[in-house]
Amino acid sequence: MTSRTTSRNVWHALPRPGFLLSWWPWRSVAYLLSSVLVGAFALLAIVLVAVTGGALAFVLVGLPLLALTALFGIPVAAMERRRLRLIDRDPALDLHRAPAGPGLRNWVTTRFQEELTWRELGFALLFAVLLWPIDAIAVVTGLVLPLSVVATPVLMATAGDGRQVTVLKQWTVTSGPEACAAALIGLVLFVAGCYAMSLVAGARAELTRLVIAPRVDAVGDRVTELVRSRVRLVDAFEAERRRIERDLHDGAQQRIVALTMTLGLARLDAPAGPLADQLAKAHGEAGKALAELRELIHGIHPKVLADYGLEAAVADAADRSAVPVEVELELAGRLPEPVEAAAYFVVCEALANVAKHSGAQRAQVSGGHSGGRLFLEIRDDGRGGANPDGEGTGLTGLADRISVLDGRLALSSPLGGPTLLRVEFPCEWTDRCV
Predict the structure, then answer these.
(1) Are residues 285 and 311 in the same domain?
(2) Count of alpha carbons within 13 angstroms of residue 81, beta-carbon side
(3) Cβ contacts of 46 within 8 Å, gap of 6 or more
(4) 209 and 241 part of one domain
(5) Domain contains 29
(6) Is 434 domain-assigned?
(7) Rounded distance, CA 153 to CA 182, Å?
(8) Which residues are registered as beta bridge partners of 376?
(9) Is residue 25 part of a domain?
């Protein structure tokens, strides 16, 4: 009975001694019987849609209907993925891409552009024309006929009045011993039929997987697509940060600078008194707003990083740190923009944590590029005990951002210190100039 719990599909269960006592033969029968029902309905639906679309094509109403026939394989394939669970416990994934945007038009456009849609249509046509009749033959041969022979004694006692009965319209049984012999033969045929139906069901399921739900390669493709989508999201996020920084720098900051200058001139021209005091106060507040805006812009995407690269940006971050920082970073050129941005914000977050939590007197940022990898190390002489999963550290978000770029982050922070944060990114030099 172990095949009930350990076997993943009917192929694994077939060689086991307890196969006939497990649920797998009956699951195979259910799979084949449901295949007959679904296949017959699919054939009827395809013929109905095709005939209706062809009949209405002359008034142009049927043309969209005929075009949408190409999408008929999608619901059929979705049903097949569900039915696979009867004899295969491995999940059958729906590998269709997400539409480019909301709405029926985007969904239809995406589906027509996918190879999987046409594979599913081909499978639906094969299913409706050929596969379900084969499944029906397998059920009749492996289940219905053997059970009819097994039921010979019952049929002889009821329909034959105990005198005679014709088995399968070929063999006339006229005595009780003959009826019992027929039942034994039917039992043997039923056992053989269970194996035969399971073989057919297994082969049928493997064909279905091969066409619409492959096990390994498609999953790998989905993982690859997810990784690529994460990279695209990071790139779009960085582009949006640069746009916001540029708009603030060229727009709001320039207006506040002009306002500060105007208030300063007005303050100089105003006579001593309450008005001059109010202008002085307004001038000071405008200066504070300008300083805060500049700090905000610097945090969004520092201009020094975009213009002069990572080395200059790290030096600027060290100069602004509340804790003295020694920088030993040497880079011979520019690196890809996502790598520079991620590395810069790692340094900024690490230095902010040093100032807030470590109690350190000094910190050091070192690194370089070697062997196709950028490496950075941020260390301090603080109390240690840093927890990357702790609230307020920001390291979890940085780790996710680094992983998108195939980078690695390692933290060593024993109690009593020192703390060392090491980051690596696989990257090569670009042709951008420093």
Answers:
(1) no
(2) 18
(3) 69, 72, 124, 125, 128
(4) no
(5) yes
(6) no
(7) 8
(8) 367, 423
(9) yes
Domain boundary among 300, 316, 337: 300
24 and 100 in a single domain? The answer is: yes
Number of structural domains in the chain:
3
* Residue 311 predicted with pLDDT over 80: yes
299-323: burial string, b at 16+ Cβ within 10 Å, e else? ebbbebbeebbbbbbbebbbeebeb
Could you tell me if residue 110 is inside a domain?
yes
Q: Does 286 lie in the same domain as 340?
A: no
* Residue finishing a domain among 270, 300, 330: 300
- By the 8 A CB rule, do 388 and 419 touch? no
Judged by DSSP in three states, 367 sits in strand
Residue 98 has pLDDT above 70, yes or no: yes
pTM (2 d.p.): 0.49
pLDDT in tens, 111-159: 888 888 888 899 999 999 999 999 999 999 888 888 888 887 877 777 7
- What proportion of the chain, given as a percentage, has pLDDT over 90? 10
Query: Looking at the structure, do residues 274 and 369 belong to the same domain, yes or no?
Result: no
Residues facing residue 1 across a β-bridge: none
**pLDDT tens digit string along 370-429?**
888 899 999 998 888 777 665 555 667 677 778 778 888 888 888 887 888 999 988 888
Query: d(Cα 309, Cα 241) in Å, to the nearest integer?
Result: 16
Shared domain for 161 and 254, answered yes or no, is no
Question: What is the spatial distance between Cα 149 and Cα 111, in angstroms, rounded to a whole number?
Answer: 50
Task: Give CA–CA dist 96/115, Å, rounded.
Answer: 9
Whether 120 and 253 map to the same domain: the answer is no
In single-letter form, the type of residue at position 27 comes to R
- State the amino acid at position 319 in one-letter form: D
The bridge status of strand 363-370 relative to strand 325-329 is parallel
State both tokens at 173. 């049984």
Rounded to an integer, what distance in angstroms lies between the CA atom of residue 414 and that of residue 425?
A: 25
Question: Is cis: bond before 418, omega within 30 of 0?
Answer: yes
CATH of the domain at 374: 3.30.565.10
Residue spans of beta strands (DSSP E) within 168-281: 171-173
As a whole number of angstroms, the distance between CA 283 and CA 268 comes to: 11
Cβ atoms 337, 307 nearer than 8 A: no
Residue 262: domain span: 237-300
Strand intervals (E) in 50-174: 165-167, 171-173
* Mean pLDDT across 31-53: 87
Q: Is residue 293 domain-shared with residue 188, that is, in the same domain? A: no
Residue with more model confidence, 301 or 10: 10
